[in-house]
């Protein structure tokens, strides 16, 4: 009995692992969307997840902040177990109030931007830090102004989302996520809804962020970005990691056929 | 024939009574409609089928029947209920259902990605509802809400059937007393439309002022 208990007791990951996924399984009805995925993301590393649609890359990303609750496995972010907590010697799903705390370590950027439509740019960026008490109102405001400036929209502080282009909205969404001072940034096809021109301004912000040492997990169709910016590229297929390695390796002529086929599209 | 000052006083009083019935029943029904929406959205599953059933019942029954039920029904059960109170109960009963439908549809009209964004940011749900959900809901609901409220105001005329002293009973009184029906009906009609036009104007003004979404 005690042995089984110790065996199932989770040990925290190595400190340099900012994100560690262990055996993530997700069942949806009879379909196994994720088949026991293991992945470690180092501090300051940018990992690009690529793969055909339906391969589970977005689902895997959403498991990192538990927007999708995996059916099995462990998610570790910043040394903390996400979405679960030990109760009476066993791991149980964490209640919402605890989960909310777990999510403070991750920032997320969505394909559809998802800005709060009734708030101007400044309020969008300050709302979450203010309502979770991430510093004094003065500090939060100063930080927000700095972030909005950094994504190049200092002149749009009072604009509402419907007055901004898609690219501008996405840059504000990035600033909004950064305002919570997350340890990891998750990007879910952040440029898929944008014209190439507008996508570029968003990718520039992401590139800058990667250069500054932010830990990033990026689900993307932008192969150029993955090749150029990612430290590591993860290729997913049918709910599993089929191949991972530095871009030079994944994008090389020696990569397995099915990856080369996917990249030709 | 009554003198002009008395007639005006009676109509003024009738208007006041109608507005009072409108304001109290619309006010209470708004709160109930919002609460029902909240329950429908986050309540346990077993409660949720009750609300659509009630809503269907309240919207399909003619208001006049509800009015009679509240007034004659209660006296048949041995409670003496004043006409105004009976009208208030009947109006709250059916307009809560209409307002609930409006709020429920407005909630469904909020672009859903914002819910996930708030979750991912770790925003407590109370703050999120107060600062994001409700403002957007009210903005979407404003126009149908005012539309329904103008109908409700017209429906206050039904309360004359249980002898409250609102606009329509005053009008009836004059007509029974031998007054010119066309004249008095025209006066009543003018009162209803004037007040409804003011309501609609108010909504347009507010919509323009808060047109950010």
Structural features, described:
The complex is a heterodimer of chains A (265) and B (213). Chain A is an alpha/beta fold and 265 residues long. Helices cover 36% and strands 27% of the residues of chain A. Chain A contains 10 helices and 12 strands. Chain A has a 6-stranded mixed β-sheet, sandwiched between helices. A 4-stranded antiparallel β-sheet of chain A has the order 2-1-4-5, covered by helices on one side. In chain A, helix 4 (121-131) packs parallel to helix 6. Chain A is globular, with a radius of gyration of 19 Å. The termini of chain A are far apart. Residues 1-7 of chain A have low confidence and may be disordered. Chain B has 213 residues and is mainly alpha-helical. Chain B has one domain: MetI-like fold. Helix content of chain B is 81%, strand content 0%. Chain B contains 9 helices and no strands. Chain B has helices at 4-42, 45-48, 50-60, 63-76, 83-108, 113-121, 125-155, 167-176, 181-209. Chain B is globular. At the A-B interface, helix 3, strand 8, helix 4 and helix 6 of A face helix 6 and helix 7 of B.
